[in-house]
Hints:
The chain is mainly alpha-helical. Helix content is 64%, strand content 0%. Helix 2 (47-58) crosses helix 3. The chain is elongated.
Amino acid sequence: MDGKMLARLGAVVFVAIALTVTAIDxxxxxxxxAPPPASAFQPPANPLRETLRRxxxxxxxxxxxxGCLAAWAESRDRFLGRDRSEAR
Length: 88
C-alpha cells in the first residue's frame, strides 16, 4: 500500500466514525431536566436593599426621610469600606 491509498482509507474510516457518532447522538432522546427551584435564583433577603428600593420609590420625599438618610449613609459606608463605628 502506498501512502496515498493509506491516507484515503484513513479519511474514509474517520468520516464513517463521525457519521456513526452523529447518528447515535441524534437518535438519543434528551431527557428534559427539571428546572432549578425558584429560590436558587433569588438572592437572600437584604433589608438595606429593600429600604433603598422604598426610598427610590419615594422620590424627592426621600431626601427628608430619616430612614432613607440612614440607609444611604450605611450604603455609602459599605461602598467606601468604612466601619460604622469609625464613622460616628
